[in-house]
Amino acid sequence: MKTITVYDIAKEANVSVATVSRVLNDTAPVKASTREKVNAVIQKYQFQPNALARSLISKATGMIGMILPDITNPFFPEVFKGAEDEARAKGYTFFLCNSGGDYRRESEYLSALKEKRVDGIIFLGGRINASRCSPELASEVAELAEQIPVILVNGALPKSGVHRVMSDETLGAELAMQHLIDLGHRDIAFIGGVADMIPTMQKVKAFKKKLSENGLPIRPEWVLNKDFSVENGKELMAELLRGSKRPSAVMCVNDFTAVGAVKTAIERGLRIPEDISIVGYDDTPLSTTVIPELTTVAQRTYELGKQSVTLLHQLINGEKTKKVTMLRPELVVRQSTGPYRAR
Question: Rounded CA gap, 338 and 127, in Å?
Answer without folding.
Answer: 37
